[in-house]
Design a protein that fits this description.
Structural class: mainly alpha
Helix content: 55-70%
Strand order of the largest sheet: 1-2
Radius of gyration: 31 Å
Order of helices and strands: HHHHHHHHHHHHHEEHHH
Strand content: under 5%
């Protein structure tokens, strides 16, 4: 608070303006000459070379200072060197954008790069690209429109690039994550629908478990009751599954296609496999195992499936079509404890 008060007083003094204090606070790119550019380029290149030479050590220092010290790295020396490079970068950027906006240039490119990757090296490169493009575009716009201050335009362009990264970043972008979440929810609904159709037919066709039997139609009302979904959600998922060739809609209801039977068989097998594992090794009660299995079945890898089959020795527990028998009774309304009402 005292520093800000003194700064305000100095700014109002004629001698403060004469000493060039205002230029260092707000920047004055137009007054830069070739010698300034060479000095900034040389100092920046030196910082880049130092950071590249000890990149691994700096990364470890930033993520876990205690671990770096335990491994014998000179934590204090690295910390001082890192702070020194920050000070150097800040000083060489004062004349371009000023002290206030320089803080934004230190933070915004790195924050924007975080939306594009989880890799530290890639994030550093992307951050440098965003910062460089911000300076280039901001200076160009200030040159074309003289009334626009260059420092503010550089930071403004950087802010625009940050917003674009926040929305469209491939790793953590808001729009990209929303799209992926939508696709995941659609995939989960499709799996629930196929598994529900299979278990409905399994319950009502106790004798005929052939492929032709599993392709019989299931009434729409029974599916709606079985899944506990709203009608609009069920119709939407039926449309998606039909476009993928998994089901077909007939006058008698919804039936599985040959491809749908194969996919439903795989889904039911994996779901029950995980149920048996939870009952056998996690000691979860059969009455609630379906809910716990439903939380993980959508991300099981083929290697994990093979390991579970070998671990549980399922040869004696397989039913029709090689599908594991359900460890709990299947009610006529479908899966009794499924987490499908989400």
């Amino acid at each position: 608070g005292a520093g800000i008060a003194v700064l305000s007083v100095v700014q109002q003094m004629p001698t403060g303006h004469a000493a060039g204090l205002e230029a260092f606070i707000y920047g004055k790119t137009a007054s830069m000459v070739a010698a300034d550019a060479w000095m900034i380029g040389g100092a920046g290149l030196a910082c880049v070379l130092v950071a590249a030479a000890i990149f691994k050590e700096l990364t470890l220092l930033c993520f876990d200072e205690g671990y770096a010290g335990a491994r014998g790295f000179p934590v204090l020396g690295l910390d001082i060197l890192l702070m020194a490079m920050v000070v150097v970068v800040t000083i060489i950027g004062l004349q371009a954008v000023g002290l206030v906006l320089m803080i934004a240039l230190l933070v915004i490119p790195a924050a924007a790069a975080r939306f594009w990757t989880h890799n530290m090296k890639h994030m550093t490169i992307i951050s440098a690209v965003i910062g460089g493009n911000s300076g280039l575009l901001g200076s160009s716009m200030s040159a074309v429109f003289p009334r626009l201050p260059s420092g503010a335009m550089i930071v403004l362009v950087s802010g625009v690039l940050f917003f674009v990264s926040m929305m469209l970043g491939s790793a953590r972008g808001v729009a990209v994550r929303f799209y992926r979440r939508t696709q995941l929810n659609r995939s989960i609904d499709r799996q629930h629908l196929l598994r529900g159709l299979y278990e409905y037919l399994e319950l009502h066709l106790r004798e005929d478990r052939s492929e032709m039997g599993m392709e019989q139609p299931v009434p729409f009302a029974d599916i709606l009751e079985m899944r506990s979904w709203k009608a609009a959600r069920l119709k939407r998922q039926i449309h998606h599954s039909q476009s993928e060739g998994m089901i077909q809609v007939t006058s008698g209801g919804v039936s599985l296609t040959k491809t749908g039977v194969e996919e439903a068989t795989r889904l039911v097998h994996e779901h029950r496999l995980w149920e048996l594992y939870l009952i056998t090794h996690a000691e979860i009660a059969p009455s609630r195992v379906d809910r716990d299995a439903d939380a993980i079945e959508h991300v099981l890898e083929p290697e994990m499936i093979a390991q579970l089959e070998e671990l549980l020795e399922l040869q004696q527990n397989q039913g029709a079509n090689g599908v594991v028998q359900s460890p709990h009774p299947i009610e006529s309304s479908g899966v009794p404890t499924a987490r499908d009402a989400r």
